[in-house]
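FYI - complex with nicotinamide-adenine-dinucleotide, inputs then prediction.
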Amino acid sequence: MSKPLNIGMIGYGFMGRTHTNGYKRVPDFFPELKYKPVLKAACARDKEKIQAFADQWGYESIETDWKALIARKDIDAIDICTPNNLHKEIAIAAAKAGKMILCEKPLAMNAAEGEEMCKAVEEAKVPNTVWYNYRRIPAVTFAKNIIDSGRLGRIFHYRANFLQDWTINADLPQGGNALWRLDAAAAGSGVTGDLLAHCIDTAIWLNGSISDVTAMTETFIKERVHTATGQKQKVTIDDACAFLCHFENGSLGLFESTRYARGHKALYTFEINGENMSLRWDLHDLHRLEMFDYGDEGPFRAWKSIHVTDAGGDHPYMNKWWVPGLQIGYEHSFVHQVADFLKSLEEGKPCGPTFRDALETQKVCDAVLQSAKEHVWKNV
Ligand SMILES: NC(=O)c1ccc[n+]([C@@H]2O[C@H](COP(=O)([O-])OP(=O)(O)OC[C@H]3O[C@@H](n4cnc5c(N)ncnc54)[C@H](O)[C@@H]3O)[C@@H](O)[C@H]2O)c1
C-alpha cells in the first residue's frame, strides 16, 4: 500500500516545473517506493498564473500566500522554488509548522541565514534536502562511486567551470521574473551563488571539504534598469568569479564562472586528477563520463568516454530507465532526487545534501565573495 506525501509547491517558474515533473514521474519509474507524491497545492502571488500552472501540471488546489500554504494541515512537505531571498523565511516557518522541506539552492543569501535555517530544521527534526541536483546525474554519481572506491589514488587537482553568456546585453533589466538573478537583494550574489554553488557542492561531494580560497569577481555592466522602479540602478551582483582553493585532502582547486562567455549557454564541466586516474564530465554531454586510467596496458592508455547507460546495475539509477545504450537527460536528476528523498523517509535516514551539507557550500561562497572584496586568502 502506497502512502501519500502531500506536496505544497511554492513558485511555478523554471524549478517549479522541474520538481513537479519529478514528483509526477517517480511513482511510474520507482514503483517500489512506499511514499507517493501527491500534487496537493501550488502557491504564488498571482492567482491567475498559479491557477494556470496548477491546471496544466495537475495540482489539486492553489494558494496565493505561502503562509496560508504552510498553515494547511493537509500539506506534508513544502518545496521552495522561489528566489533566494525568500528561502530563509519560508523554510523557518515551514520547519516550525513541522513540514518536511525541499529547498532550492543556494540554501540562503549567506551562511548566517543558512545557519538559522539549519537550526530550525534540526530543532523541528523535519526531513530536509537542498536541490543540488547535479549529484544525481548518473555520470556524476558514477564518478562519485569511482572516487570513493579509491581508484584515483592521491588527488592532486580539481577544476570546474560554469559558463553562460545570457547577460552580455547591457539593455537587459534587473529584477522581476527570472531576472531577479541580476539583483543581489533577491539573489544574494551573482554567479557565485547561482552557478559556482553547484560546482562547489559537487566538488565537496566528490573531493571533500575546501579549507581556504582566494578569489576575484567582476561586474562588467555597472548599471541596469530595475524593473521595479524603471530607473537605472547600480548592479550589485558579481557577473564573473574565479577562485583558487585548497581542499582538506591536500589537492588544489580552480573554479571559474561567468555569464559573459559568448557562445556558452550552460557549460558546466569538472575534472579531477589523481595519481592513477583522471575523470572529467561536461553537462553538454551529461550522459558520458570521461576517464583516463594509467593502469591500462601501455599502448592502450587513453582517454575513454563511458556512455553511462548500463541498465544491468553497473551505472547508478539506470536500471530504472531504458535498455543499455539509451540515455536519459537533465530532468531525470530531479526525478532521482525525489526518489532518493522518498527512500530516505522510508529508511529514516537523511537525504543529502541536507541543509547542513548545503551550509558548507554557502560558507565557501561567502569566503569567495569576501576574498574577492578584500583581495586576500580567506579560510572557509
Ligand atoms: N537546481 C538548479 O539547477 C536550479 C536551477 C535554476 C534555479 N534554481 C534555484 O531555484 C529557485 C527558483 O529559481 P527559478 O529559476 O525557478 O526562478 P523563476 O523566476 O523561474 O521562478 C520563481 C518563482 O517564485 C515565485 N515567487 C516569487 N516570490 C514569491 C512569493 N512571495 N510567494 C510565492 N511565490 C513567489 C514566482 O512567482 C516564480 O514562480 C532559486 O533559488 C534558484 O537559485 C536552481
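The chain has ten helices and 17 strands. Residues 10-16, 43-45, 66, 81-84, 86, 104-105, 131, 133, 177-178, 194 surround nicotinamide-adenine-dinucleotide (CB under 6 Å).
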